[in-house]
Amino acid sequence: MLFVNYPKCSTCRKAKNWLDEHNIEYESRHIIEDNPTSEELRKWWEISGLPLKRFFNTSGMKYRELKLKDKLPDMSEDEQLDLLATDGMLVKRPILVNDDVVLVGFKVKEWEEKLK
Q1: Average pLDDT in the 15-37 region?
Q2: Model confidence at 15, in pLDDT bands (50, 70, 90)?
Q3: Three-state secondary structure call for residue 68
Q4: Is the pLDDT score of 112 beyond 90?
Q5: E strand or H helix at 40, and its extent?
Q6: What is the pLDDT of residues 45-93, one digit of tens each?
Q7: Tens-place pLDDT, residues 87-104
Q8: Which residues are bridge partners to 30 per DSSP?
Q9: pTM exceeds 0.90 for this model
Q10: How far apart, in Å, are the Cα atoms of 58 and each of 26, 53, 69, 92, 115?
Q11: By CB neighbour count within 10 A (0-12 exposed, 13-18 middle, 19+ buried), where does 38 fall?
Q12: β-pairing, 27-30 with 2-5?
């Protein structure tokens, strides 16, 4: 299982603690030092079944600086994925990935349901 996170993020730390408490093995990946590629993001998005907008860190400063709330509706999926791949701070975190499950953000109930 791959745990894509930003160590300074309090939500990511909570998710990491949850994984550790539940003895779930994972490989940790720093989202800033090793940002997901557009190909990885596309694959994860397809597996997740989520709207692409869920992969954006909509509460982040970078999202607001770039005024993405107004721009995303006019962008193609490819453009959005390419944009996400340019900067880990644009990507919602944490992301937990295995072969058939991709979880974006940390919601205990969702993680408990999907990881049983």
Answers
A1: 97
A2: very high
A3: helix
A4: yes
A5: helix 38-48
A6: 999 999 999 999 999 999 999 999 999 999 999 999 999 999 999 999 9
A7: 999 999 999 999 899 999
A8: 5
A9: yes
A10: 26, 8, 8, 8, 25
A11: middle
A12: parallel
48, two tokens: 């997740």
Question: Token pair of 10, please?
Answer: 């309090």
- To 10 degrees, what angle do helices 38-48 and 77-84 make? 120
Q: Tell me the Ramachandran region of residue 109: left when phi exceeds 0, alpha when psi lies from -120 to 50, beta otherwise.
A: alpha
Q: How many residues does the chain have?
A: 116
Terminal alpha carbon distance of the chain: 14
d(CA 78, CA 48): 17
What lies within 8 Å, CB to CB, of 105 at 6+ separation is 11, 54, 92, 93, 94
